[in-house]
Amino acid sequence: DTVVFPGCGGDMQRTPVLLVGADDHSSHVTYRLYKAVRHSCLVGALRRSGLHETKTTSWNLMWGRRIKDEDYLTLNPYQKVNHFPGTWHIGRKDMLIRGIQRLKRKHGGCDIIPPTYLLPYDAPLLAGEMRDGCQPYIVKPPASSCGKGIYITTSFDEIPRTKEAHVVQKYITDPLIVDGYKCDLRLYAAVTSFD
């Protein structure tokens, strides 16, 4: 069977998948979505591929929130989810930064990001760096998306003093510009299994 995802320029890309129902005679392969991920391109791809949405617990594919590690043990052999256990370490900004910092300590180099501070742990170091108040810094919550909670400041006093983690990076004042717009490059990989 295949799942059809829209590609660049409107082309359709067919991705082979094996989906087996709870009952081998079942004619409906089902999926369950959570509101946070109800994107039209995802819903369209699933529907064009012949999958049917369900609200029950008897689904073949669950797309959405990360489930608890112990919940993986309760999955039936025919049920698939879109998250692997422990992969949130690369999806959360604070955990990704910690991984990059470990990599730098172990191997040196690895200057792929601007100077970064994890609050509240690095607060004294950041306060010293921001002392002159000239360089802008960007403040980000660790587990948010779509720009929520992000702001730019030159003053350490404008950064909240909470126990909640924040990622603070030196702001790049001369970023890559494409057609007059600031942009970023995001690479996505479909990981089908871990060994």
Order of strands side by side in the largest beta sheet?
4-3-5-6
Oligomer: single chain
Q: Per the principal axes of the C-alpha atoms, what is the gross shape?
A: elongated
User: Separation of termini?
Assistant: 24 Å
- Outline the biggest β-sheet: 4 strands, parallel
C-alpha Rg (nearest Å):
21 Å
Q: What is the percentage of strand-forming residues? A: 15-25%
Instruction: State mean pLDDT (0 to 100 scale).
Output: 79
Secondary-structure class: alpha/beta
Q: Can you count the helices?
A: 4
List low-pLDDT spans.
1-26
SSE pattern: EEEHEEEHHEHEEEEE
Task: Indicate the percent of residues in helices.
Answer: 10-25%
- Report the strand count: 12
Overall description:
The chain has 195 residues and is α/β, with parallel strands linked by helices. It contains four helices and twelve strands, in the order E-E-E-H-E-E-E-H-H-E-H-E-E-E-E-E. It is elongated. The N terminus is likely disordered.
List the helices and strands and how they pair.
Layout: E1 2-6, E2 12-16, E3 29-33, H1 40-48, E4 51-53, E5 61-63, E6 80-81, H2 88-91, H3 93-107, E7 116-119, H4 123-129, E8 137-140, E9 151-153, E10 166-170, E11 177-178, E12 181-182
Parallel strand pairs: 3-4, 3-5, 5-6
Antiparallel strand pairs: 1-2, 7-10, 8-9, 8-10, 11-12
